[in-house]
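Fig. S4 source data, part A: sequence.
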Amino acid sequence: MASQKVYDFNGEKSTGPITAGEILTIQSQGLGIDIEASDEANIEKQTYSGEYIAKVKYRVGNSNYDNVFSVKGGKTQFNFLLRILNVDLLKAFNKLSLNKEEQTIESEISSYTNNPLVSYFEIKNFNTVKYTLGFKSKWNYVRVEYKTFNTLFLPDTPREKVQFNSGLIPGQIADVRADHVIGSGKINLFHATLKLDDANFFKPDYSINSKEIEKVLDQSKQRFTEYVNGIQNLGKEWSNDIRKEVTQLGELSKRSVPNLKPLRDYYTSEIQKIKNEILADKSVKELGELFKKVFGAVAHSVGEIFSKLSELVENISHSFQVAFANVIETIDKELIPQLRDLAEKLTAVAADIAKTVVEIAAGYLATISQLIEKYQPEIKQLAATFGELGQDVARFLQKAYEHVRIILVEQWTRIYNEIKALPVFDEIRAQYEDVSNIKRWYHFYYVL
């Protein structure tokens, strides 16, 4: 029989973070069941960060599964974790550094058994951009659990990556390039440069390496295909795990049905013994046959009532067992196979579409790079011709860009300071402080 307890509720003032959470526990030592579901939300006022974690721990028989959904964000990090049946389906760690002169984002994304995909994005002085993308080496991969979110980012440089760089220095040069970095060296994929100084104004220069681009695209297609195939296999494993758990729950339901026959036989026998002892007593005999008949009838009725009640409980338990067994059988033999077939079909269609899109995109990029490389002299000559015609327009756009950028920065700073100085923000801040000092915790326990 299940019992429920609610405890540990408080609403005291707190100078620390805002915290709210709840815990639901279902336990049965006899059946080997230990299931705990919990969620927790935290907001840290001083660091302007927040975190939400939802966990389901499943311990039934020999099965042991952890399921986690976690999101944590703030001014310096944004992290995400989705774990299903002990498998990290998606895990993302992002380290942020944002200031006026430089903005950087270091990211690490991984999924089930794949190597983490590491990226680095950087903007400096709003005129240079750098972006790198590559997979971590297997021997450098360290598993990071959701509990270590405070120190979760692992800076590491992939041995092989693609690197993009672009820069604009008004009055001097504009440049865009991409490189395939391998170990300590790198191979240029393409570069495009446009000079902006007065002597060589709007003079272009570019090169492209179609073979290396095709090589990088082939590697990307291979990794993507392996990932999609792994997702399909993972779906099959989950289907088998769920069927195993459904079968195990069915077996536990059979063990949980009470057997009241020994108890019924024992108490029926005891009632009969008490009846015989009382009726055999000399003092009872002296009361006459009427009392013996009445007492005998009462004792008999009590025995009959107890017997009928125990039979009723057994019948009800048996009915529940049969109904639950039918539900388990339906889920195992009909629902799960149909859901598995549907999931496999949807996954296969999605995989085919994704592979086709990647194949087409890679094919177009490879073809375009080959055409550009093939007609490189003609394109350079054409670009030079248009460059001479558009020098005056380009000079005007360059000066307009500088003027507009200065105006936008000044206006944004002025608007920000005016909004910040409005009295309404002081009132909102005061109300936020009152609300944010409340802490809530709820705990629910179900014990079988």
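Fig. S4 source data, part B ends here. Confidence is low (pLDDT under 50) at residues 1-14, 139-155.
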